[in-house]
Design goal:
This is Acetoin utilization protein AcuC. With 389 residues, this protein is α/β, with parallel strands linked by helices. It has an 8-stranded parallel beta sheet, with helices on both faces. The chain is built from 11 helices and 8 strands. The chain has a single domain (5-385), classed as Histone deacetylase domain (Arginase, Chain A). Helix 1 (27-38) packs across helix 9 and helix 7 packs parallel to helix 11.
Length: 389
């Protein structure tokens, strides 16, 4: 595992702010950045904190339509909604910095992709991972799809095989759609079942366009899935597919909204399992890509108790120096949490989980709903890569 890491951060990223009362409170970004600093992760050998410029229109057009970019600017300037493009809606409230802040987030992820391709190593943008935005519309709190833009830049730079792994509780629909018929990109999404959660897509049968069958993999998890099931599903699908695909770069999205305390979804995962998946992705990047890894944030609406710890763990893992789960959270940081959110901060970097699971290939239960979900994905995708389901 590399010890070369760029952390992409600019205080202006917190301007991605839909307003008071919206679930995507930018305090989650500030508290993450401050926890990373309080734990000394940003001072580790080989770690640099960098701020890149916003993505320009030519870069945004790698994924987004020019008319849509113009519409984002217009809504930001006037405050007038454009519901046909998902702007100024119940999910995506209009705000004055909508274009600038969204382009700044995108700029960090695109720069992260460029650095990883040209220099190797790891880059983290925990403000990124806005995976629902589509070519011509905002969706699910996402205005510009920085994750898809990072992948598109890698292809523009000459990458021939890019893997995108999304473990947010919601289906990574915008990224999947952007590369639906492109066999240079393998998208894998583990998410709560579309019957019970937005965006109601990501069925196992949705496995890619006519020229890219098997290059979209969707694991639709039953509500209530906890650590053991979530990790079992991840390891049953992600490592075998990545090894068969042999990516040159991994881009991963680590939405923290799989957590049991998240108010917008119905899984029951702990910070400890989220940490274990980040470790697994890091190990796969080291094994398969020459250690080229772009790690992004995503959803997560338990803004004080969960998101900062999950993404601080992610950042430390990307730095090659994982934080011991039993580590106390720094006292000054806990005081800041209370001051900013009026909530009590978690006292340790763990929820007390074990991150244990049973390997799927050791045997599965055909009557178990989680195993049914895993089996459906493997049947839909694995044969296209020459793997037995």
């Amino acid at each position: 595992m590399t010890d070369a890491l760029r952390i992409h951060w600019d205080d202006a990223l917190t301007r991605y702010d839909f307003g008071q009362g919206h679930p995507m409170d930018p305090v989650r970004l500030r508290l993450t950045r401050d926890l990373v600093h309080a734990l000394g992760i940003d001072a580790l050998p080989g770690v640099r904190v960098v701020a890149s410029p916003p993505a320009g229109d030519s870069t945004l057009r790698l994924v987004h339509e020019a008319d849509y970019i113009a519409a984002v600017r217009r809504v930001a300037e006037t405050g007038e909604p454009d519901p046909g493009r998902g702007l100024g809606t119940d999910d995506n409230w209009a705000f004055a910095a909508m274009h600038e802040a969204s382009a700044l987030i995108a700029g960090q992820s695109v720069a992260a992709a460029e650095e990883v391709w040209r220099e190797g190593g790891h880059s983290v943008n925990f403000a990124g991972g806005l995976h629902h935005a589509h070519a011509g519309s905002a969706s699910g709190f996402c205005v510009y799809n920085d994750a898809a833009l990072a992948v598109a830049r890698l292809l523009e730079l000459g990458a021939e095989r890019v893997a995108y792994v999304d473990v947010d509780v919601h289906h990574g629909d915008g990224v999947e759609r952007a590369f639906w018929n492109d066999p240079r990109v393998l998208t894998i999404s583990l998410h709560e079942h579309p019957r019970t959660l937005f965006p109601q897509t990501g069925w196992p049968e949705e496995n890619g366009g006519p020229d890219a069958q098997g290059f979209a993999a969707n694991v639709a998890l039953p509500p209530g899935t906890g650590d053991a099931g979530w990790l079992r599903a991840f390891h049953a699908v992600v490592p075998p597919l990545l090894r068969a695909f042999d990516p040159q770069v991994i881009v991963s999205q680590h939405g923290a909204d799989t957590h049991v305390e998240d108010p917008l979804a119905h899984l029951a995962v702990t910070v400890d399992a989220q940490r274990a998946v980040a470790l697994a992705v890091a190990e796969l990047a080291a094994e398969l890509t020459g250690d080229r890894w772009v790690a992004l944030g995503g959803g997560g609406y338990a803004v004080a108790d969960v998101v900062p710890r999950t993404w601080a763990h992610l950042t430390a893992i990307a730095a090659g120096h994982p934080v011991d789960p039993q580590t106390p959270t720094p006292e000054d940081w806990r005081a800041e949490v209370t001051r900013l959110t009026r909530a009590l901060a978690p006292r340790r970097m763990t929820d007390g989980g074990t991150a244990e699971y049973q390997d799927f290939d050791a045997g599965y239960d055909p009557a178990d709903r989680l195993d049914q979900a895993v089996r459906a994905t493997r049947k839909a995708v694995f044969p296209h890569h020459g793997i037995l389901p």
